[in-house]
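Reader question, answered in our methods column.
A reader sent in the components of a multi-part assembly and asked whether the whole thing could be modeled at once rather than chain by chain. We filled in our standard form and ran it. Here is what they sent:
COMPLEX SIZE: two components
ENTRIES:
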Amino acid sequence: MSLLAPLYVLGALGIGLPILFHLIRRQPRGRVVFSSLMFLKATPPTLTRRSRLDNWPLLLIRALALMLLAAAFARPFLRSPVLENDEASGRRIVLMIDTSASMRRDGLWQQAIDEATRVLDSLKPSDELAIVAFDASTRLAMTFDESASLQRQARRSLAQQTIRQLNPTWSASQLGQSLVFAAELLARTESAAGTDGVQLAEQANGHLILISDMQSGGDTNLAAVQSYQWPESIKLEIHSLAAQKSTNAWATVLEQHEDDNDLSVEKSDMKTEVANKTRVRVSSAANSSASDFTLMWASAIGQPIESTRTSVNVGPGESRIVNLTDPPESMSDTTTSRLMLTGDDHDFDNDRFVTRPKPMPRQLLFIGDSFDEPRESLLYYLQRAPLDNRQRTVTLQQSDAQALVSPPNKDLTPLVIVASRVDDTGAAALRKYVQSGGNVLWVLDGNTDLAAAQASLRIVGGVADLRLSESKVNDYVMWSKIDFANPLLRAFADVKYNDFTKIRYWSHRNIEGLPDSWNVLARFDDGNVAWTESTDTDGHLWVMTAGWQPKESQLALSTKFVPLVFGMLGQSDADFALQSLVVGDGIKHETSAGTTLELPDATVVKFEDKSGEFVASTPGFYQLVEGERKRTFAVNVAEFESRTSPLPLDELERYGVALGTIDESPVAAEQQRQRRDVELESRQRLWQWLLCGVLLLLGLESWLGGFLNRRHSAVS
Amino acid sequence: MRIKDLQLRARAIVEGFQNGLHRSPYHGFSVEFNEYRPYTHGDDPRSLDWKLYARSDRYFVKKFEDETNRRCHLVVDQSRSMGYTSIDYDKADYARTIAATLAYFLSSQRDGVGLVTFDEKIDQVISARHRPGHLRQLMVALSRPLSGASTNLNSPLEQLAKIVSQRGLVIVISDLLVPIETIGSSLSLLRSRGHEVIVLRTLDRGEMSFSATQPGMIVDIETGRELYIDPAIASRLYDIGFKAHSQQIKSICDSLGIDLFEIITDQSLEKCLYDIVTVQHRRGRQVARRGSAAVSLGTAR
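And here is the structure of the entire assembly that came back:
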């Protein structure tokens, strides 16, 4: 028999007090003030007749009732060994093991396995265990259900086997969302148990054990924890692993500034200087001890190119951007190269795979007349616009309208600019070209034969009642109502660039009868269409109702001209974009027979079925072959995974994670024992029987009191 | 006691008392004619009774009682035991009123009145005078609240005997709840200096017998000492002790020729005053022939 609230037993002393007071003496009623005590002498208290106890049975019954009441308040319960064992089924433990790429550092994985084994050894027979492995994704390696269905020994061996099957991956660690996953896993099991009211008290017994190197790169993902209401009852115990050597550095290949290519023509001189250089950022972890590193290009298979060796000095926690000379074309693979960093202690992130696509030859077809006077010529300004970039070299070809008998190749010729009349054959060819995904810009300048252009445009645009006419302009007009949401004009949406008021037009044409499916990209401030776009086809048909030559407008001389043409050229350049993926990203592939993907280890995956994504799991070069088209992707370890300096643990607490230990301190053990006692007591509810006893005794007392009273009055 | 102002209260009592005197059987004794005696050489011719000379053609001198200005000291107990009461007002109030009344009464007949208040030591001393404003000063001194912790009759009366050199009347107003030996020594000291002494023993009805019914703690009003008292036993002892004490006081006063009046606070003040004056008056008539000084109260109108 044990008591839940033993202090209430002291209430039983209450029965002794009246007897005690009664027997000792009657307390004086009060104090009376008197003028002089000279005639008074103290009188000793005396035992009077009234002090003696008359009704022993009544007193006993009342005392017993009081004692039972006190006992009921003390909430007694019976302990039994069966219940003890039953109650010991306690802790739900989620073991989280970090399998991110940074765990590939020297000896860390072995440390993790040892630590996990130690945790398994320390578990009690009654504990339930789940194992969660996490990197960029979170995987439940062993569930509570599996754990619960097995005996202790089998459970332990299953857990060990599960841990042995784990291996560090190349993915980055997403600590935040993994913590949330594990906490929700615990909370879910708790709430499932919570439906049974009896086990309610047991709920507070959730533990997370995290075995990780706690690299600070993971903190970029702790925001997931911040937005999660961490259950107070779930304590996180961190087993932090540390590599023996701490220096780690990594290099990141930076993309060339798009600005350099697009917006600043003035910087072209500088651009040629750095044309054969690559911007590389070298960073060092905060706890690095060395600061001298070496960068070197290597071939795709890892053969270093000594001539590109460059030394870099980067202090701990710092980063530096260097312009690294590109590897010689002759020695490196035509499209792929590898950047190697040496000088640090850990090499899991030392290789960067870079795809370096050779500039592809592209053609800009201009169908129109050339003029000797540059002020009248559209072509003159196109010829002077720098349209090349790292992915393409653009050649401008002028052609007669009559030469256009078949649609141009849309891959080789991404843009056709039409500024003269086209016969029906040519128009039909252009129509096919646009439908297959090509881009046509039709410029209606002052030299255009409007009637012929109208007929051609009707064919190319597929609009039967399209009408063109000359517009009358007083003084000048400007662009207004510019659709900055359109991809072509989105680059100008920023307030720094969206001023088109410097571009004045002295003449333009009217275009009418456009269907609703055509977008108007810009209008003149007299309300007429300045630039419109057909959206019916895969490709684009743009119509500009004024030319850009200075005779017509100031567009060609403005800073907006080159980006506009560049944008129209780039519309089909998505394939040329530098493909830089990180481990865990998906490589999209389309459904077509014979689509294959060659992995870094030279295995070839064939996609027979539907289109989808292939998740890259190792860094390296992936070659996707879709028919004749070959694309190479460079997959690297995520940059933040390289930040291997340890994360301060209070950072987690700052995000609201409750840290604690699973090892039961005496206080925790005591709390658990108390919880168990509360539960036992609430099951047994002995106090209810005690209260029944009290009621019975009180009834007996009333009856006996009444009986004695009657007898007394009868006698008297 | 319903009148708050002490002087006003005293005046009201004295006037009521004097009105009562007019209705009393002693009406008409205002001129205290003593005797005629034949004129002899050396007598002041101003004292000749010319009317009698006209009737009888003989020189007679009309002799009156000594009506010189008296000096009277009121000695008032201000100790805390005077604060005890079983009715609306306490003994101290009553004693103050008596003192004020007597002061007013005496000063109205041009006698000098002084005041000494005391507890365990002398508190205030105002010498006996008769001048404008003096009565007011007396009243203010009487109005002060009780302060003293205990009663000590001996040292105040000794000091008084030293201060007052000229013989006069000393009226002690106290409950005399002090050890009997101190009473005897201090009163005899005053008498030995030739002072006429009157003791007005002020008592509450509740003090005359122990009236508590329930056993309980009794607290001494002066010392704060507590005693557990069972009235069943204690009241009898109290009665015996109190009566013996009173008896001893009475015998001391008798032996010293001191007039002792026991005044119970629930009695009417006028009646008390009347008793005092009556007794004094009778006594004064007896003593006057012996040249005693204690006649001023009895002869006053």
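What stands out: The first strand of chain A starts at residue 2 and ends at 3. The two ends of chain A are 49 Å apart (CA to CA).
Send us your own complexes using the same form.
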